[in-house]
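Notes, p. 3: input format for complexes.
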Amino acid sequence: MSVLFEPITFRGVTAPNRVWMAPMCQYSADVTGRDVGVPGDWHRTHLVTRAIGGAGLILTEATAVSPEGRISPADLGIWNDTQTHAFAEINAQIEYFGAVPGIQLGHAGRKGSAHVPWRGGGSLAGDDRLSWQTVAPSAIGFGDHTPPAEATAEDIRKVVADFAAAAERASRAAFKVVEIHAAHGYLLHQFLSPLSNHRTDEYGGSFAGRIRLLLEVVKAVRGVWPAELPVFVRVSATDWLSEEPGLDAGSWTPDQTVTLVQALADLGVDLVDVSSGGVASARIPVEPGYQVPFARRIQNETTVPAAAVGLITEPEQAERIVESGEAVAVFLGRELLRDPYWPRKAARVLNAQVTPEIPAQYARAF
Ligand SMILES: Cc1cc2nc3c(=O)[nH]c(=O)nc-3n(C[C@H](O)[C@H](O)[C@H](O)COP(=O)(O)O)c2cc1C
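Output follows (366 residues plus flavin mononucleotide):
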């Protein structure tokens, strides 16, 4: 019996299986006019194809809570009605094919105002009409990116309010899961890590100060998000620069993550999606399942269930991760770009049935 293809329930939402689509930016929205940040044909095809392919949960890419929260001008957003309606139409299709639609809400902070990756990903020139002034906990640039402005108290209040407004819109768009993006060196991770947060006010300094913004965002989102729907948080478990024990080490560490996640449990977070890195360049020992040990620590040392992500590509590997209790589910990123039908093929290997069922039109192939 495969556990990978067993359903799992969070509050009132049941994912039909534990193979989930990781959030992946497509940088494919219009950059000017009424359709800025609006999901279009590309996004619908991209997301719905993976639902037909059998993934149990489809997470949209990092979707900006405000225009200045985008990474590039071509990112998706959820700060207006046009965006909200477009997502609602896609979500109806995802649900029609039996998968659960979820959204990752993000704010890029100092990594914003950037070119799309296939144009190099660097900062837009300051005089580019599409550029904007980025904000971050401290005025410390990331790599070659144009340095951000230090966020004022007003900026911080706006970030919290923008996440709450975005979550409220997401519920109107019929998303069933909201994931707060606190990983990969984007704004919330920038506040968590001592490498990027040099503030001396209540949002910096101590561990309690650095996690304050994320806790406020989670509280605000939980406050507007329907009680019967789950909230997930994506974390970077480590900056990969220091494995020193102690909460006030020089970078963000797995120990700090465990303490943070226990605080998130008290705020009603239903699952932590465990990734790593992104706040500074570091040597990362990339190999199959290289981030799974961080998920295992969350599973063993906190009361919050963890999902694993990162170079999970083989059916038996995914099955083992869930079967051994290292994670309750797996997110697949690039493997689902290569093969939208991975879940259905994996089920054949593992002798399992996939829910959602294959549409009748394709049944002869499976
Ligand atoms: C094209 C692409 C876009 C991505 N965009 C996001 C994103 O929007 N949010 C996020 O948290 N991670 C993003 N990631 C990271 C993936 O969610 C995932 O964590 C990573 O690719 C590792 O998993 P994999 O080895 O299965 O691809 C992106 C990855 C890729 C390849």
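Residues 292 and 308 are 5 Å apart (CA to CA).
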